[in-house]
Write a structure and sequence with these properties.
The chain is an alpha/beta fold. The protein is built from 16 helices and 19 strands. It starts with a helix and ends with a helix.
Amino acid sequence: MRHKIIRSLAVLLVSVPLMMHGEHKNIETGKRYDRLIIRNVILIDGKGTPPRGPVDVILRENRIESIRSTRNESAYAGETHVLDGGGRFLLPGLINIHAHIHDNRGGMPISFQYIYNLWLACGITTVRDVGSNTELTVEERRKSREGTITAPRIYLYMRAGGNTPEEGRRSVQRVQKQKADGIKIFGLDRDVMKVIMEEARKWNLRTAHHVGVEETDAWDDIRLGTASIEHWYGIPDAALHGVQNFPPHYNYSNESDRFRYAGHLWKQADPEKLEKVLQAMVDAGVAWCPTFVIYEANRDLQRAVNQPWFEHYLHPALEKYFIPNPAHHGSFQWDWTTADEIEWKNNFRLWMKAVRRFADLGGVVGVGEDAGYIYMMYGFSLIRELELHQEAGFHPIDVIQNATSGNARILGLEDKLGRIRSGYWADLILVNENPLENMKCLYPTGVMRLKEGEIIQHGGVEWTIKDGILYHAPTLLKTVQDIVIEAR
């Protein structure tokens, strides 16, 4: 019976690209127009307010020109290009604040186009890459900016580090010469971090910090002005009485140890000390990008292993990489136990409570996926991250705001990105259902509904618009399936 259900669902997933458009006028995927009318849409504009509409949105090349109350179709008889929203929902393009543009996984090549199409099919129009093959991604960023490839906007936060302060300074100078948009730091001694942050400020480079189990913690980010703390490392650590209660056999280089005992950390944080850390982060303007999704397998491994989109959209390079293997970062779940999952479920509860409290204090919460590791696929994982933010206690309107204007603020682009507003960049998504009612409708495969006694698949992003260029999302998803078939 289970196999029949999976096969039936697979047929529904594959059938999504056949969904019909609305009544459009001279609209083609992959095109940018001098002037485009998007008529009759309900607006969720990314600023944290309820939907409004119907409205018409007018684009001029790659900018939003104006927004006005919807007009009759006849009012646009003289227009050359009209996209009829048909009462669908128009949102700002989603921003993935923690992404990796991988060119291989475990030594097997993986095409950039596979990743880009997944992101765009999920409505992601901007990514902040926090670590990849720099030579390749610099060129990819250029091509994306020029519109010569089908890809989201790309912002590169290149790795800076070193064993001494001088090495740290030179590493920042190196990435600045490579025209990085920012830097990512990880595993640093305190004196090295201080010099790196000083040099980064000199070049106006924002910093994302993955705080490992190291000398530094969130208090260093607060003092030195980090733009964002990634995941959650360093935050509960700053609220401990001494160090975490590691067992004698613990070895950080053994990822089974590293991730198993990470699940024991939040319960050891002192609530009063944690409150001071969170308030200080808010006061210092340090954002928090929790990436709940990349740790979800730790609390429910079977769910992660059996995600329904794997059958048709999981690249064999990812499939191989996900198999537990000490040689692959994030592939650590050999001998993963029920007790481990129970610890991680409790860890999630406390972690989510802290993120919610941080937001209540006025903190900026980012939305990112960190896909390509731990059973997480590009694009799909960001939508799951939205669901997890809702689980953490955020209203769906706040979730959308976190993933759009909130992420734009972390990038320092809040005056041109992440909102549907006159003068802003034309990064938009047209969705077939209301994500405020069900965040799952943002998955490119849509959701199952019962209609007249039959199961249908409905929802998903229909059009993704990046920098004024239109992409038909179901068509992109179909190309992902084709890439996977060829790779297999």
